[in-house]
């Protein structure tokens, strides 16, 4: 019977990574919560000057397409660490991972229907089912697969072929919604009507989810498994120092390209070349992935080699409750934007959305720290663990554990 991993064996830096990823994910997601994809083009036209333009550039340079890959990488690393420990103890079980991923998939469906259709954890649940197939692959084969998945150029063509074969038309699901109707539903409409729209928008976004985001998620999942198999998490301090030079060189080159792509390339005639344009976008896509992974290296470097470690420590609290906080961000979004709360849908500027994302995350840091002062797990983490192991675990900290944690915090 698989045995749960003790909380005392947690790697603090990995929780900090997760906390940072949860923050970045919300900074990006809140923009989509504020304006659904079908209305994005019209909505953005009213915010083309001043602070809004500045925030848009900040988002392009530091947030868009950076944190989803990081989240996916950390998921792959986490699940591979668990699978490796179970294999070493002889308790690895396909039914265990099916239960684990089934809970995550159900939670993702609930998230889509009742809160927000931008959920990704149901996608992670599907990927997680492959862990026992992927884990035996050689380390070299894992890296080859990462490269193949990232560089494969025909996802759009495959999507078109499959949709034609099964007579599936994503455009159909939003065809009967006008821009004004979408705004009215999400800002003032009855909650049941917003559920209906969320489901329709989810199906309309299937090409984006499964033929753009899924390959990124799978590639980063594989990379996380590669790191797990190499046990890099056990000596991150040495790894960070070892790869310092190639990481910085890659960061400089990729960021130089990103700046050219964002600020210069759109004004050049070559940008509109039918053959080269997809290449330019693929390079931007790879540069964004590289920058997302650079964030993790930079955090690890600060943690191990600078006196600024204490500034990172608060991130471990939302990181230990990453699943709970990810879902709760959508609860905050529902309260902020829908008729169930303040009805601010399409009323916030990019600057206002950015500030609110920071405020909400700071609230999450505070309540996560308070919660973990009394409980061992976040509420959804606890439910996930109980479902996975078919056992009710204690959730409250004992007096002995409380005393131990207080001593640790006082150091």
Automatic annotation (TrEMBL):
Superkingdom per UniProt: Bacteria
Pfam families (alphabetical): DUF418 (PF04235)
Keyword Secreted: no
Transmembrane segments annotated in the record for this chain: 12-34, 54-77, 97-115, 121-137, 142-163, 202-227, 247-265, 285-305, 326-345, 351-377
Assigned keywords, A-Z: Membrane, Transmembrane, Transmembrane helix
Coiled-coil boundaries: none
Entry keyword GTP-binding: no
Domain DUF418: 228-391
Name of protein: Membrane protein
């Amino acid at each position: 019977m698989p045995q749960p991993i003790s909380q005392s064996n947690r790697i603090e830096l990995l929780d900090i990574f997760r906390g940072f990823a949860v923050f970045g994910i919300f900074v990006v997601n809140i923009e989509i919560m504020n304006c659904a994809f079908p209305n994005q083009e019209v909505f953005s036209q009213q915010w083309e000057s001043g602070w809004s333009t500045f925030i848009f550039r900040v988002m392009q340079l530091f947030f868009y397409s950076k944190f989803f890959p990081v989240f996916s990488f950390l998921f792959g690393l986490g699940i591979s660490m668990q699978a490796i420990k179970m294999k070493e103890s002889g308790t690895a079980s396909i039914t265990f991972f099916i239960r684990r991923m089934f809970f995550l998939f159900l939670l993702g469906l609930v998230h889509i229907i009742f809160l927000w259709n931008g959920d990704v954890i149901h996608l992670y649940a599907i990927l997680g089912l492959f862990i026992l197939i992927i884990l035996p692959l050689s380390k070299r084969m894992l890296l080859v697969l990462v490269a193949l998945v990232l560089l494969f150029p025909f996802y759009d063509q495959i999507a078109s072929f499959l949709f034609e074969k099964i007579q599936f038309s994503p455009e159909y699901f939003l065809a009967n919604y006008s821009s004004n109707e979408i705004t009215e539903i999400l800002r003032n409409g009855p909650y049941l009507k917003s559920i209906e729209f969320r489901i329709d928008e989810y199906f309309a976004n299937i090409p984006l989810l499964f033929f753009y985001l899924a390959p990124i998620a799978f590639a980063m999942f594989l990379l996380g498994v590669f790191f797990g198999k190499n046990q890099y998490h056990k000596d991150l301090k040495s790894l960070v120092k070892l790869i310092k030079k190639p990481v910085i060189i890659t960061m400089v080159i990729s960021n130089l390209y990103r700046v050219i792509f964002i600020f210069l390339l759109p004004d050049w005639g070559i940008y509109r070349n039918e053959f080269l344009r997809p290449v330019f976008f693929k390079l931007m896509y790879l540069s964004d992935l590289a920058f997302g992974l650079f964030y993790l290296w930079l955090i690890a470097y600060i943690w191990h080699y600078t006196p600024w470690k204490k500034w990172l420590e608060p991130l471990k609290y939302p990181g230990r409750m990453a699943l709970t906080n990810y879902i709760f961000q959508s609860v905050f979004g529902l309260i902020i934007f829908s008729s169930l709360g303040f009805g601010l849908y399409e009323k916030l500027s990019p600057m206002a959305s950015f500030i609110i994302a920071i405020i909400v995350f700071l609230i999450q840091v505070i309540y996560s720290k308070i919660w973990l002062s009394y409980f061992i797990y976040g509420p959804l983490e606890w439910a996930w663990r109980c479902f996975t192991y078919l056992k009710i675990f204690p959730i409250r900290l004992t007096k002995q554990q409380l005393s131990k944690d207080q001593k640790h915090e006082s150091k």
